[in-house]
Amino acid sequence: MVIRYYSYILLAGVIMGWLSACTGVGPAANLFRSASPHDHYSQSLKEAKLDQTALGTDWLAAADRALHDSLKITVPYRESGYFSANRAFAVGYRLDGQRGDRFLVQVETQGQKTTQIFIDVFALDDRNRASLTAASKADTNVLTWEPRKNQTYLIRIQPELLRNASYTISITREPALAFPVKGRDSRQISSYFGAARDGGRRRHEGLDIFAPKGTPAVASVNGIITGVGTNSLGGNVAFLTDHERDIRLYYAHLDRWNVTNGQRVSIGDTIGFVGNTGNARTTGPHLHFGIYGLMDGATDPLPFVRLGRGPAKQTLLSSSRLGDSVRTSAAKSLVRLSPSSDSPIVRELPKLSALTILGGTETWLRIETPDGLTGYVLNSTTETPKKSLRRLTLSAPGALLDAADQQAGIIDTLPTGAAVDVLAQTTTFQLVRSTEGLTGWLPLTVSSAPPINSTVR
């Protein structure tokens, strides 16, 4: 893999010294209070004036870019990737979250040094404006978070500066609450929120979970019992208040209670026992389970207690391929917003287009085009450019660049008459391999090459 910012490695010791001074303990470390470890680290760069260096500027720009150039995923999901010590990196993943979900985000790294990974979650409004919702602690690469609203969220992953590592990110979903009937799960729910009741005069404000009479109805959260009593609809009922989430859990049709008002309970404690009291006298024993917001009305309990989808099962991409250059092999390869054939197409690429593998899975590669577009392409529509498309002779001296950009770093300078093998191309650059085995980019103008449309030899 070609490293663009190789010259920055000379500054590593100096930069790390500056950062240690800014993020250490003592009076200097208490000059500000950041909203997250990522914000704290960003402020450290500015305090040390590292935001005025090329690498510091790029790190801050990458953090902002990840909030706009994010990729859409469906949970559970996992993929692998790579970041270089000398190139700023950040990636954003968008997903739809629902109140009642609990997401676990975990980033595992493999490198020579321990790497701090900043995990930040942002809520996106209808104008795609991002507001910070949750952040991982400074000493862990794991974040558990629960959405408070049904909306789109963005997870940004960014490592600290000056670290090389391959990584695997996994995102899974579980219910926020424990199931309220012992020995049962969401597969035993038989009547759902919103179903018509009393000939359509009212709507069902909860879930009905059938179980034998006397089955323990248990606490789904840690909280306080705030309403033990009897009413005409629910029969023997109990309310459990969860101040952490600002909700009250409603247990109805209980055969009898096992708690008293004001009692503090923990997850799994028995609230009462399943019965058919109240207006359930003519039905089989079941628990009516409802959730009410402290500041609003009834909400659908299903997302809070439905079974999770289990671990992510995507087959990870081999770490040896991370950072590799590939070229499209199909007549038309589609770059998509997310790793799915149903995802929106962001660009169509002609055959033999050059791509860099940033990460992904064995099925979907997360790629970057030479002009900076990121997205997903089917692995089956790409190939490793081991065979050259043709051999060219340079008509003028040419700088072999580490990116398809006139301002990119120079790997080597090739003299007039030098022979190179063309591996792939863009409209203005071609990926080549020199006779010394160096791979890099040359502008089309420095070779005697016509546009690539010939057969691979």
Number of beta-strand segments: 34
Alpha plus pi helix count: 4
The poorly predicted ranges are: 1-11, 18-34, 449-457
Q: Would you give the CATH topology of the largest domain?
A: Jelly Rolls
What would the principal axes of the Cα set say about the shape? Answer: elongated
Q: How many whole angstroms does the radius of gyration measure?
A: 29 Å
Structural class: mainly beta
CATH classification, class level of the largest domain? Mainly Beta
- Beta content comes to 35-45%
CATH architecture of the largest domain: Sandwich
For the sheet with most strands, the description reads: 10 strands, antiparallel
Compute the separation of the termini in Å: 24 Å
Helix content: under 10%
Question: Could you tell me the mean pLDDT?
Answer: 88
How many structural units, i.e. domains? Answer: 4
Q: In words, what does this structure look like?
A:
The N terminus and C terminus are likely disordered. It contains four helices and 34 strands. The strands form seven sheets. Strands 10, 13, 14, 15, 16, 17, 18, 19, 20 and 21 form a ten-stranded antiparallel sheet that branches. Strands 2, 4, 7, 9, 22, 25, 26, 27 and 28 form a nine-stranded antiparallel sheet that branches. It is mainly beta and about 450 residues long.
